[in-house]
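Q&A log
Question type: sequence-to-structure
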Amino acid sequence: MSSPDPSFEALVAERDRLGRLTRRGIGMPIAGMLYWLAVALLVRRLPQSTSLVWAFILTGPVFPVGAALTRLLGGNLFAKSPALTPLGLQLAALQLFFWPVVIVVFRQAPDWTPFTLAVLFGSHFLPYWWLYGSRAYALLSILVATVLSAAVLITRSPLYLMVPPITAGCYAVAIGMLWVETTKIRHSPADEGRRSKD
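Response status: OK
Response body:
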């Protein structure tokens, strides 16, 4: 039986340390849920073009709101890790490459814009499953993609008005799971000893 790779064990330990310091970035999906609730209101109250432009503009405050909420909930989204911070920055920057797809859909098939935004931006959470050691992020990505895809296939409609509240509901489920995960970490006896060293 082969012995565990010390470098991999060190990487996992660093991942766990970062997860504790950031509280697994819990404020980010909460900010995402608030964003989708705002979009749900916009698409019902404003003309389509106006509501979608505002939906694009509102993506800007999501990160600062998520960082502030994480701080309020006891984490620091800006905690540094020599091994993992570059990876986290690359994962965040990946979202920039979604925008050409979103803009093309907005110009050619605007009814599908909320669906496109939801699936693309929901999928970007998947790698955080490993980065934060949290199954909630995998659940979030999978729920958004599968629930929305099933809904539009069954109804044969882009569900322009329904995608935002459905997406917010998927975020709420994942946030509940993430809350349970972070609460367990904060109250585990092993973590108490580790936190005293951090």
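Response note: The longest helix spans residues 163-187.
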